[in-house]
Amino acid sequence: MVQLYLDVPSTLDKAAKTFEALRECTYATKSLGSSGQTEIMTCDCGKTAGSDEVMCGDNSDCINRLTSIECIGDRCGCSGDCGNRRFQRHQHAQVDVFGAGPKGFGVRALADIKADGFIYEYTGEVVDQARFLRRKRQYEQQGITHFYFMMLQKDEFIDATLKGSIARFCNHSCSPNAYIDKWVVGPKLRMGLFAKRDIAAGEEITFDYNVDRYGAAAQPCYCYEANCTGWLGGKTQTNGLALPPLVADALGLTIEEEEEWQSQFPKNQKRKDLDAELAESLPVKPLDVQDVSRLMAALMQQKAEPWLSRKLVDRIFVSQDQSVHIEVMRMHGYEIFASLLTLHNAEEKLAEKVLQTLACWPQMTRNKISSSKIEGVVKGIAESAEDSGVQEQARELLDAWSALQMAYRIPRRERDASKDAASETETTASVPDSPKPTPVSRNTQARLPPGWEQKTSSNRTVYYINAKTQETSDRVPDQRELKRLREVQRELEAEKEREAARQALLREEREKQAEILDKIIADAVAAEVINVEAESTPPSSVPTPGEDTPHGSKKPVSLQKRYTILLAKYVPKIVWRYEPQLGRDRCKRHAHDIVRLLVEKELKRENLEVPDELTDERKKKVRHFVVPYMEKALAHYLKKGKRVADGKPSDLTAKRQKA
């Protein structure tokens, strides 16, 4: 049964005198607390016309919120109405400090808090490993027994001993109602306390120290829960092999599966000392679409051990469902992978797994690739990776990306919520209005590059258009980015033109070669036909100039030659189609015979005019003569079962024989 502390007096004023309040963390050096993100990650949320729903809110599909990233500035479509800026706006839950008996101070809820609701940011002084060890010894010597160190990321800790927020007074419980989560807020990683379940007003807010908190010597636990371990504290509260809860959850492991994996190793074994083969024994399950956001959030924050990042990426890679890969891309996949490759640039096993996964993703445009800056990271791998296989993977990926083009987004229309509401058949219970976040001021007319104008559509959506090129964008155009994109576009168009010119030259060259070949074939056929005619015609039958032929008309030999040359330009083109079945020599003989027969027919005609080229109608008639002739010749050849000139039956011959 949940115990409530509504009647216990507040000790907030007394507790406030024991530390210096910090709204946000301070950093011993500028590099500490880095989120590893060099680019602002934007969401694609937009305001629905006529709707009071807060954008990027609890029930939204905001990709930033789902991956534990806060929206920043005015780059996101949500702008000032965004509900995903709780750390920046210090939108803490209503809480109070009270006396918690042997535990000292405690924190209680003054109002109901929904599950996953933001309770309070854990602030303090962010220090490195050396300062952490030095301060830890100093506090132990001073007799400080309460735990105020929280690990932010590898070799970085939040020290809330002397400076921090009232979140430092949250006590431990073996069955907590809250949890610690890390969020990317611009260039920094920040830590907050969130509700693990619905928390009632008056209930003490607790979380599990054995997960994230560091302090002095072990001491008794006073949570009084049924599953209480009795002790907390020591050098570190985490099992040497225990996976970070966020990673274990992202890998989809149950407690039993994690314990079974840990049982393979000697006691007191630490994760960082694991043998590579044993580390690979950690099971990997295919990913479901609904689990993508948790996994991507874990990848954002997993910086300590490359093999754990590789396991997380491997879960994406083994997933056969294409919708999983599409969702990973939507959840800032390119940006997160670029960050991983940059952070672990010497870890080629991780690079290989990331490259293999990137190659699985559907690729339509260069937009996400360009905005994530991942192309430059992959180029570095292609140039400097020691493993030739990894280099080749990187080059193949770059080649595939180079074929993609940029696409300009058309401004999205706002959906009319009043129309959607009309189609709803269910009624919803009224709920009290929640306080709206203070809007962030922004310029209504942004500075635009030359040629660009700001417009408002009929549904009051602001968009930007280039009056000259008619390019449109739903975001403020950046002059340098637009210049770079246009240069890329011009280069792509120039390359297309160069390729078209090369293809035109190749076609022209092929046509010339074909013309030369046709002329050679025609001349050869004509010469052989004329020679055959000359040899087969008795001298007495060869008409002399001015002498009548047996048919009563004057047909000089030169006319016969002209007809032969004319038909020899066209007939062989039809005959050569049968070369795979009949062979070159046999086709050549048939071409000679057909030309000779057609010349004889032409010489019998009354009209002695020989055209320079055959008309389409004459070509059609010639074709009607040649095709049946060759089909009969082929049938005769197949019936006799002869082979082609090279001594092997062709594929087409074999197919015809089977038929």
TrEMBL record:
InterPro entries in UniProt: AWS_dom, Post-SET_dom, Set2_fungi, SET2_Histone-Lys_MeTrsfase, SET_dom, SET_dom_sf, SETD2/Set2_SET, SRI
What PROSITE patterns is this protein classified in? AWS, POST_SET, SAM_MT43_SET2_1, SET, WW_DOMAIN_2
* UniProt feature, compositional bias: Basic and acidic residues: 412-422
Q: Which residues form the WW domain?
A: 446-479
Provide the coiled-coil residue spans: 478-511
Q: Does the keyword Transferase apply?
A: yes
Task: Please report the name of this protein according to its UniProt entry.
Answer: Histone-lysine N-methyltransferase, H3 lysine-36 specific
**Could you tell me which species this protein originates from?**
Wickerhamiella sorbophila
